[in-house]
Amino acid sequence: MLHPDKFHSSSVEERQIAQEHSAFINSAYKDLKDPWKRAKYLLEMLNYSSSANVDQSVLLEVIELNSIENKEERSKIIKDKEKHLLYQIEAAFASNDLKTAYKICLHFKFIKRSAS
């Protein structure tokens, strides 16, 4: 176990290594806990890349979302869309449909941007 607290009486070098490993593990856990970062990571690990562009319908959807002036309403719609996209990406990975998973990741990326 490389938890830094276990190395308080070790050399400076050993404490530094334990700290670096702990930071790496914490970062990986944080990324893998997020379903969208996990999906992106899985696509990278499977060496899937695509030159696919975002569907025009996604861009129109983002324009529509940005036209909603009520922030609470827009936030609720975006949250519902994110849930739906998460369901779709899980199904795409379950059926090993990486092309669809990639497109859904792009879709999510644009929807998420409209939330900010």
List segments where confidence is low: pLDDT < 50 over at least 5 consecutive residues.
none
Radius of gyration: 19 Å
Determine the structural class based on helices, strands and strand pairing.
mainly alpha
What overall form do the CA principal axes indicate?
elongated
Q: Please give the share of residues in helix.
A: over 70%
Strand content: under 5%
- How is the biggest beta sheet arranged? none
Give the overall pLDDT as a whole number: 86
DSSP summary, beta strand count: 0
Helix count, DSSP H or I runs of 4 or more residues: 5
Tally of distinct domains: 2
Distance between the termini: 39 Å
Order of helices and strands: HHHHH
SSE diagram, text form:
Layout: H1 12-33, H2 35-45, H3 56-67, H4 71-94, H5 98-115
Helix pairs in contact: 2-5, 3-5, 4-5
Summarize the structure in words.
This protein is an all-alpha fold. The chain folds into two domains: 1-33; 36-115. 75% of the residues lie in helices and 0% in strands. It has five helices and no strands. Helix 2 runs antiparallel to helix 5 (98-115), helix 3 runs parallel beside helix 5 and helix 4 runs antiparallel to helix 5. The longest helix is centred in the C-terminal third of the chain and has 24 residues, at 71-94. The termini are far apart. The relative contact order is 0.13. The model has no long low-confidence stretch (mean pLDDT 86).
